[in-house]
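Homework help thread (please don't just give me the answer)

Our assignment gives two proteins as sequence + structure token strings and asks us to describe the second one. The first is just a warm-up. Here they are:
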Amino acid sequence: MIRSIVLTCLLALVFSVLGLAGALALPMMREKAAETGFSVTAYRRIGVLQLAGAVGVALGPAVPLLGGLAGTGLLLLLAGAVVVHLRQGDGVAKLAPAMVCAALVAAYLAVLFA
């Protein structure tokens, strides 16, 4: 039970912060959009998806189906992030956050449906 709460809170926090920064197109996110070849509008849409995922994950313990769908959606977003980093030839330092977040989401899903 404690693992579920910790993972839920951690993921909801991480993706809320990232999603809000992307949706608001903060300067750091504008730089990342330009660096990866995305438009600011596309990055804003990704931010909105991250926010939706954060809400779904937060509601997951009460509505497991919603949590599972949100977690799956976040895994798909993270897979896309990994692909972008690999195509750009980024090193481990830039690839690691997406991989760590993906592992946390996978752990959340495993605990949610255990």
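The one we have to describe:
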Amino acid sequence: MSILRIRCSPRGLDSESYRLSQQIIDRLTQTGPAGGLDIVEFDATTLTHADGDYATALAAPDEPAADVMDNGSLHASGGLIRMLDEASHIVLTTPMHNFTVPSALKAWLDHVVRVRHTFHITPQGKVGLLANRPVYVAISSGGTFSGEEARQPDFLTPYLRHVLATIGLKQVTFVAVEGTARGPEWLTLARARAEAALAGICYAATAQELAA
């Protein structure tokens, strides 16, 4: 049982999304049933895109031979899926790039959203195979994409909600620091808003887990 943090920002540990994700993890580990869990880290910016064998395997009716499974993207995918399956809580730390997810997060998703491993295809559509568990998404955005002050569209949160539900992860909570490019005063206000939202979210999540 662990908290899995997936880091997706090219700015790494200096990113605003990482700072916000640390606040999420601190709250999860200091209060409630999640306290004391180990933190497992993965830097998604180190991933390469899916290769030809991976693409062929996705389109095939059956799994490829064992020697193919042990190479390239298929081998990386297996490890990432095991890491995801073993976590009791997941924290995605991501910037918003061009209104949606950055390429690093998309690469990670392409590795873990995998037919016959994290979802099945049925006549009614795709059915997730992973056990549902809390997923927290820490977002940083140079512009503002929510509320009355929104100045840009948001294709990140609806996409993530849908793609994570496809593999069975439906308990997704988003927390964002928006408008980081609008100057120091706005950044201070955006951080305060995110911290206030986070306090309410984590309090509710802790109460729900204790009641379960």
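TA reply:
I won't write it for you, but here's a hint about the kind of observation we're looking for: Residues 2-211 form a domain with the Rossmann fold fold (CATH 3.40.50.360).
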